[in-house]
Structure formats: C-alpha cells, structure tokens
Design brief:
This protein is α/β, with parallel strands linked by helices. It is built from nine helices and seven strands; from the N terminus they run αααββααβββαβαβαα. It has two domains: about 1-75 and about 230-260, no CATH class; about 75-230, 3-Layer(aba) Sandwich (type ii restriction endonuclease, domain 2), CATH 3.40.1560.
C-alpha cells in the first residue's frame, strides 16, 4: 500500500519548507570565514557543502520524527507525541520495577539475551499481585492507537546510539509496559530507527542488539516506515526525498555562489 498522493504532497512540502529555511539561514560563522588549507584541498564550495549537510543532519532527526507522525496519522486512530502536559502518567508496582531493573541488569551483563515476549510476560505478572505502587511519568516519541484499541509506544533514535542511550531507551519502554500492565493492559513497545547504516548487511551495532531484538521490539529502516504507513512506504519516502533534493539544489548552489564571493 503506497502513500496516498495527498500524504506524499504533505511530506514533500514539510521537508522542502524546512530545507529552504535552512538554506536561507545558512552562513559562514567567524571561525570558518577563512580556511585556506581546507579551501585549497576541497574548494570553498565543498567546505560550505560539508557544513550545510552537517547542520541538516542535526535537524533531520526532528524532521524524521515529525514525518513519522504525519504518516502514522493516516493509518492509526491516534498518532501523537506524548510530552509536556500530555506525558504518559501512571503507576507501577514495586515488584514490576524490581523485575525490569533485573532484566536490564542481566541484559547489560549478557546474562540473558533480549527476548521481548518473555520480558513482557515477566513484567505483566509482576504488575498484578502487589498493592505497593509508585507514580511514573514518561515522554513518548510516538504513541499510536489502532481502531481496535491496541496501543503502541515507540522510542525513536538515530542509527548509531551509544550503550547508555540504548539502556535508557530499553528502561523507558519496559517501564511503559509496567505502567500499562498495572491497568491490566498488554501493549506493544518498539525502538524505531529511520535507516540501517550498514545496509545491505543486517544492522550490527552491539550497543543496540545487547538490549533489543530486531523484529520483536526493534524496527529499523524499511520495517520502521512500512510499519507506520504500510508496504511501499519506505520506497515512497526515498523518492520524495530525491524529488525535494532536486528541487532545492539550484537554490543551494545559488547560496553557495553568494557565500564564495563574500
């Protein structure tokens, strides 16, 4: 199922508007105004391109998160970021907290391998028979709800995280499981990543695979985008990015020419 034309247009316009704003705001800062050796090797235009790309890559994470929400809004009853006054609020039992902290410790120490189904069952069981609870609040990068009531919580990260980032992401997601289990609900949780930097090889970053199991609680690249928008979403998205790139290139070249004359 490809993205609908209107949805493709919305994503195209969203991305193009932000890139044009980046181009308009881009300039050489004082530290980069004269780099004679770099300019001699790579040309001033080449150096400018590097700086512009770096600035865009920093912003791309936020843009991707917004685009993920745009796509999901079309296919889910609810698609929103839970933040600020809208953060996820709930309770967890003391027993559930001990359970997921032990899971984290064992994963970190390689005593056990990630197994989402087993972890979720342990946390659900530990949430049912205890009246000792503590309040918890969580920010959720993307909360989805299907028409049948199924709830899905996604933590979205870049493709090359360090171990501490992955441990924290795993903890947050397990805590969400515990919060919902206390309400008697079994929900889905996922770590989502926009692309696989090792493609066509399988994703191989140990800092992530120590805590997450691809296909169970970890979606990356095509699997991530197609989960949100259906089959073909990833390919549609790449084509949109290619089209936007072609459209903004003349504007970018014009800006570089202006800056190289400065």
């Amino acid at each position: 199922m490809a993205l609908k034309n209107k949805l493709q247009s919305n994503i195209h316009n969203f991305l193009k508007e932000r890139l044009l704003k980046k181009i308009d705001e881009y300039s050489l800062n004082a530290d980069d105004s004269s780099k004679p050796f770099q300019y001699a090797l790579f040309t001033k235009k080449g150096y400018l391109a590097k700086g512009f790309i770096h600035g865009c890559e920093t912003a791309l994470g936020n843009w991707h998160e917004s685009i993920a929400k745009i796509i999901a809004t079309e296919n889910f009853k609810v698609a929103e970021k839970l933040q600020g006054a809208n953060k996820l609020k709930g309770q967890i039992t003391n027993e559930a907290q001990k359970t997921f902290e032990n899971i984290l410790s064992d994963l970190d120490s390689a005593i056990r391998e990630p197994n989402h189904k087993k972890e979720a069952a342990e946390i659900f069981d530990a949430s049912q028979n205890s009246n000792q609870t503590v309040n918890r609040i969580q920010t959720v990068d993307l909360f989805l709800k299907r028409k049948n009531g199924e709830e899905i919580y996604l933590e979205i990260k870049g493709p090359k995280p360090n171990k501490n980032e992955m441990r924290a992401a795993k903890r947050d997601l397990l805590e969400i499981l515990a919060m919902k289990a206390r309400e008697g609900k079994k929900v889905k949780i996922y770590l989502g990543m926009y692309y696989n930097p090792y493609y066509p090889k399988d994703y191989q970053r140990w800092t992530c695979l120590k805590f997450f199991n691809k296909g169970q609680d970890f979606l990356i690249g095509k699997d991530f985008w197609d989960f949100l928008g259906g089959n073909g979403t990833y390919e549609n998205l790449i084509k949109i990015y290619e089209d936007v790139g072609e459209e903004i290139r003349p504007v970018l070249d014009k800006k570089f020419k202006y800056l190289t004359k400065a």
